[in-house]
Amino acid sequence: MARDLDLEFVSLTKRYGDTIAVDAVSYHFGAGTYACLLGPSGCGKSSTLRMVAGHESVSDGSVLLGGRDISHLPPAKRGTAMMFQNYALFPHLSVADNVAFSLKMKGVDAAVRARHAGEMLELVDMSGFADRLPAQLSGGQQQRVALARALITEPDVLLLDEPLSALDPFLRIRMRAELKRLQRELGITFIHVTHGQDEALALADEIVVMNDARIEQAGPTRAVFDAPKTAFVARFLGSHNVIALAEGKVAVRSDALRIGAPEGAQLQGKITNIEYQGTHVSLTAAIAGAQEVTALLSDKDFFGAPKDLGEAVGLNWDSQAAHALSA
Ligand SMILES: Nc1ncnc2c1ncn2[C@@H]1O[C@H](COP(=O)(O)OP(=O)(O)OP(=O)(O)O)[C@@H](O)[C@H]1O
């Protein structure tokens, strides 16, 4: 049962020798939030997650859960559980024994362990596989077992380190829906580390975009996507153009750009690429200052007034669609 405990990072810092992997990061996650930590390789996502789990020591600052400082508690005493990228199942133990492992360590008796493991396998839709070994399961099934094994400890916070990266693209999308369903059903906080902006947008109530050991921008997913504050966030989340104008840099979503006649348009350009994407057509145009912008048009709009490579066009957008960037 979820206990409604908020998770908070207070100036959380990780140093490995001279490397600062996480630099005084502060953030507050409301209880029951699905949050994604997002950012390029090496920005400090995994180090942050491992400090929360207790698999890495905290160099400075703290992690609070429900106001209690858990920074220096052993992993099993924190109220968190971690699901690893490679699932880390014990190859010689059956699915049921893998799931029940942490209860065995706690000295829970065999009948109670078996009952709890059965409930968890039911939760992840793996009841028929209790006696198999991990090697006899598909990647998606192993992932469900790893989830069941993490959830049996009844954590307040589930930590997921790139949980979908080992799956093929089709399964990844299916499992992503499963993760969301589980999180809703359990009502606990999920902190999910990913490289993938699509994954973060699809899953997260809140996203935390990290860059170079710090939080670059964080907040409700749609608010961040709709109004990136820096060029890094706009580019990293994708579907945005970063345009240098006389008054400064702005981010404009690709689907907010309109293509029309060059005369009197906010920007003039020449079409350099046209990509048919099924429901949409993506048009790239070269504009002044050796810049390129991309406009995403519905197939209806494009084929209603088709353009050719090399054609001069005008680009327009509504003023509220342009977000001034601070860096
Ligand atoms: N055990 C370690 N010893 C020394 N440096 C480390 C260690 N673990 C991570 N680092 C360094 O800390 C920084 C952050 O690493 P971290 O693994 O947290 O990044 P990440 O955002 O999770 O990257 P990825 O997406 O590639 O997993 C990197 O510069 C990395 O090289």
TrEMBL record:
Top-rank taxon: Bacteria
Residues covered by the ABC transporter domain: 7-237
GO biological process: quaternary ammonium group transport
Keyword Ubl conjugation recorded: no
Molecular function terms from GO: ATP binding; ATP hydrolysis activity; transmembrane transporter activity
SMART domains: AAA
Keywords: ATP-binding, Nucleotide-binding, Transport
GO cellular component: ATP-binding cassette (ABC) transporter complex
Protein name according to UniProt: ABC transporter ATP-binding protein
Species, as recorded: Roseobacter cerasinus
Lineage per the UniProt record: Bacteria, Pseudomonadati, Pseudomonadota, Alphaproteobacteria, Rhodobacterales
